[in-house]
Amino acid sequence: MKTFIRLFTLVFALKFSQSALAGAGEDCHFHGKKPAEQSTVLKCADLRIQKLIARGKIDASWKSIKHESITTIDGENGKEWKILFTNTASANKTKMNLYLFFSESGNFIAANHSGK
Fold first, then answer.
1. 90 vs 41: which has the higher pLDDT
2. How many separate domains does the chain show?
3. What is this structure's pTM?
């Protein structure tokens, strides 16, 4: 029985110690309600664009595009970050603008070309 308890404790400690020590990390996943810094959200937006390119959701020409604006808006679940990227080289003019939305704490919500 002691062995079982020790094993359970060890597994529990290993499982939750990484998440207890986790910071912002590269995946841009945040916990809590603390508002993220604008610079943090912009870094996460750049990472999200790279992921969208890798998944084939957007063209590789977005890779070198820098954000044009970042604002806070009132979203469905409270304050959100809205980041605009404009790719003037886009062949499809209806998809020239790319909007990324993040929660106030910095978690990715959505990306679209309409801004809504």
1. 41
2. 1
3. 0.73
